[in-house]
Structures are given as structure tokens and as C-alpha cells.
From TrEMBL:
Keywords: ATP-binding, Nucleotide-binding. It comes from the Bacteria. One of its GO terms (molecular function) is ATP binding. The lineage of its organism: Bacteria, Pseudomonadati, Bacteroidota, Bacteroidia, Bacteroidales. Residues 139-349 form the Sigma-54 factor interaction domain. This is Sigma-54 factor interaction domain-containing protein. InterPro entries: AAA_lid_NorR, P-loop_NTPase, Sigma_54_int. It comes from Muribaculum intestinale. The keyword ATP-binding applies.
């Protein structure tokens, strides 16, 4: 379980060319009260008097110089605050100049600042380090999917009913739960996240299944929100405590649960989960579709995740080619956004050229089985249409490239699965 943000004596100094700056708005939206200056010279003077372990956020270019010279002056003056530099450029030159001071400097891209600045501040500001980060942005969905989720969220968040966020693993259900709290009338009150495992390891609780742990959670979040993560995993004793607290007239806590709907249904049908508790927790329901049902979302999402990775790790922006994106779209992603992010981080970490191409993601490809109700010929055409090259189609079908060309000739289709004039597709392979 973790609670709201703790306070720190350290300060945040903003060095910007204009007070109407995105960084200023973002820092204030994070609940901080920054000190603002408009030049590196003034910033150096103010930095001398800041408490130890404060943070300096600076634009790469300012009216009186550039950030690398400013950091050099900080170092010469014996000022050891963490510096976060942001720039609208993402070239190797700017990155390398800042990277010289990597022991105390971080480089962020202005284009991704809304996703990375507060996360970096949370990482380096004393009292916030090492806590579990839970960004409020919902970048795991896009387009019609995101519009539907936000519409459902906008309807249930203000109603003060108990809510279940339903979806498979790897979809960021906890972020949606946090967004519900932030858009409710309770948003100025505490919010905590609790898992069944937290009750089992609580060293101060001697009762079975951490009954007193749950009691403590309700006390600490009175007037606020308690998020129950992975609801189907709560044992019968924990379910009974939750149901009792929900019926306690003195308990003023909103509950938001996250659950895999299919697993939840099986648990209820098997009698392993209290159906009354499930009904009461699902007064409001927000469902997140799996990534395989949103293939058009993958391109935007892959670019966004790579942008987030590069900004977080001070790397120049990586480019992912259209052929590589076709391979990603052809994969089912059983682990959803979490699996996609892990895969892209692994590839980005090893990329030296600045470009991720189809060849870089070939290890993702597995031999595809025939889908339900699909003929072998339908499978062949589908794979050709969704593969950037014949080589990749061959790997997906578990055949040699030569065999694929022979099939294309025999069944009258080109490399994109489109029938060739005056030829008709054969009924089977």
C-alpha cells in the first residue's frame, strides 16, 4: 500500500526564458511551488542558497547561454543539485553535451515533458524516491478506445459509487483507478492501493488474512478512496471484512477495484468469491479492451512508448519503421501493453543506429496457427496482407521463402495477398 505524496524541504528552481512555460504549468500541477528565474546567471545565484538536494529544471537554451555552460558553472561553484534539462531538439549533439554531466544531470525532450517531468521530479526529490510511481496519463489507449474509456470514466467518477476497472493483465487498470479518484469529489482526500499480498506480509497483524490491516486501510483513507488491486485474489476472510466495512454507516471510503472480468466470473461461479461483494463493487464498471482487439492502436502506442523510453533515459529519439510496425500489429500481445512496452524497451536498449526495423523485431514472430473458422488459404492470404515482406510471411507460416513464392504463383496472389488478374484463388493449400 502507498499513500499520497510526502512533503520535502528541498526546492524546485525553474530557469526558463518565459514565465509562460510548459514546465512551470506541469510543476505546479504536481502540487509543487517552484522558484522561477529567467536567466542562467540569476539561476546560479539562487541555486547557491537552495536547500541540499533541491532540483533545477532548465531549458537547454536561454537568453544568456546554454545549459551545459550553466551546469559547468554549478560544478565549479560546488553546487550539487540535480539538474533536469529539457529541449525541443533531440539530436545527439545536445544529448552528448548534457550527458557529460550525467552524474547530476538528466535530459528530457520538450515534446514528452508532460509525461516525464513530474516522474523525474518524483524520482529525485527527497522523500519521494523509491516510491512506486503511478503516472496519471492514460497513454496506453488511443483514438476511439480512449474516447470510450474516458466517456465511461467521466460518467462514473463524479457519482461516488463503487467502481470496478475490468480488463486483462498489462492494460494499466491501476492508472484508470487513480484517474477515477482524481476526477471525483474526493480528490483532495487520501487514496491508497492495497493487494491481498499486502495483508499477508503485514508484520503488525496477528489475525488471519490481515483483518486488522484492512481495518487500518479504511481508517487511514476515511473520506477518501481505497483501491483493491486484483480483486479475484482476495480470500474469503478478506472478502468478509470488505463487505462488513461497506455496510458500516461510519465508514466513508469509496472502493475502486481492478479485476480480470473472466477470472472474476469463474471465481463467483465456483463459489470462491462472494457474489454480493462483487455486485456491490461493480456498481460502476469501466472495461478496457485487450490490445489484440485494437491493432490500429499499436502504431501510436509503440511510438509513444519509445518516446517515453528515450526521454526517461536521456536518449535521442528512436525511429520505428513502417515494416517493423506491421510486424508488431500482426502479433497477438497476450500480455497487452505491458508486454509491448517490455519488448520495445529491450529492443531500444540495444539499438545503436537510432532506427528499429523489421529485422530487429523478427524474434517476436511465431508460427501462427489457423484461426477458428479459417481455411489454410485464408490464413495464407491474411499473413501475406499483414507482413511487410515475404521473408516475414514465411517465418509466420513456418515455411521457406521458396515455398511461399511457389504458393503465390499457384494461387494467383502477389506478395500483399492480392489476387492477380485472370487468376483465381484455389480452395486450399
Amino acid at each position: 500500500m502507498f499513500n499520497t505524496k510526502p512533503q520535502s524541504m528541498a526546492k524546485i528552481l525553474l530557469v526558463n526564458r518565459s514565465p509562460q512555460n510548459l514546465a512551470v504549468a506541469l510543476v505546479r500541477s504536481g502540487g509543487h511551488e517552484p522558484i522561477e528565474v529567467l536567466s542562467f546567471k540569476h539561476g546560479l545565484e539562487v541555486a547557491r542558497d537552495l536547500p541540499y538536494d533541491s532540483i533545477v529544471v532548465a531549458e537547454y537554451k536561454n537568453s544568456d547561454g546554454e545549459a551545459p555552460e550553466f551546469m559547468e558553472n554549478l560544478e565549479k561553484s560546488g553546487i550539487h543539485h540535480r539538474v533536469i534539462v529539457h529541449s525541443d531538439k533531440c539530436g545527439y549533439t545536445e544529448w552528448n553535451r548534457v550527458h557529460r554531466y550525467k552524474s547530476f544531470a538528466t535530459y528530457l525532450q520538450t515534446a514528452a515533458l508532460d509525461q516525464t517531468l513530474l516522474e523525474s521530479i518524483d524520482l529525485y526529490l527527497p522523500g519521494l524516491r523509491n516510491r512506486e510511481l503511478l503516472p496519471g496519463n492514460l497513454f496506453q489507449q488511443h483514438g476511439e478506445v480512449a474516447d470510450k474509456i474516458m466517456c465511461e470514466l467521466g460518467k462514473v467518477a463524479p457519482l461516488d459509487v463503487n467502481v470496478t476497472v475490468s480488463g486483462e493483465s498489462g492494460l494499466g487498470k491501476e492508472r484508470i483507478a487513480k484517474a477515477v479518484h482524481e476526477r471525483s469529489a474526493r480528490n483532495r482526500m487520501p487514496m491508497s492501493f492495497v493487494r491481498h499480498a499486502d495483508m499477508e506480509i503485514d508484520p503488525y497483524c496477528q489475525t488471519s488474512c490481515g483483518e486488522c490491516f484492512l481495518e487500518k486501510c479504511f481508517r487511514e483513507n476515511q473520506g477518501g478512496t481505497l483501491a483493491l488491486i486484483d480483486l479475484p485474489h482476495f480470500c474469503r476472510k478478506g472478502q468478509a471484512v470488505l463487505l462488513n466495512k461497506m455496510h458500516d454507516p461510519e465508514c466513508n471510503v469509496r472502493l475502486i477495484a481492478t479485476a480480470d472480468k473472466n477470472l472474476m466470473k469463474r471465481k463467483v461461479e465456483a463459489g470462491d468469491f462472494n457474489s454480493n461483494l462483487w455486485f456491490e463493487l461493480s456498481e460502476g464498471m469501466i472495461e478496457i479492451p485487450p490490445l489484440r482487439d485494437c491493432p490500429d492502436n499499436i502504431e501510436w502506442l509503440a511510438k509513444k512508448l519509445l518516446e517515453h523510453f528515450c526521454a526517461k533515459h536521456n536518449r535521442p529519439q528512436l525511429i520505428i519503421t513502417s515494416d517493423a510496425l506491421m510486424v508488431l500489429k500482426a502479433f497477438a500481445w497476450p500480455g497487452n501493453v505491458m508486454q509491448l512496452n517490455t519488448f520495445l524497451v529491450r529492443k531500444a536498449s540495444k539499438c545503436d543506429s537510432g532506427v528499429i526495423d523489421a529485422d530487429d523485431v523478427l524474434d517476436l514472430i511465431e508460427v501462427e496457427e489457423v484461426r477458428h473458422g479459417e481455411s489454410q488459404l485464408d490464413r495464407f492470404v491474411r499473413v501475406l496482407k499483414t507482413s511487410p515482406s515475404v521473408t516475414i510471411a514465411a517465418k509466420r507460416l513456418g515455411k521457406s521463402v521458396r515455398t511461399i513464392y511457389n504458393w503465390m504463383k499457384s494461387y494467383g496472389v502477389n506478395s500483399k495477398g492480392i489476387p492477380i488478374a485472370n487468376k483465381s484463388l484455389q480452395p486450399s493449400l
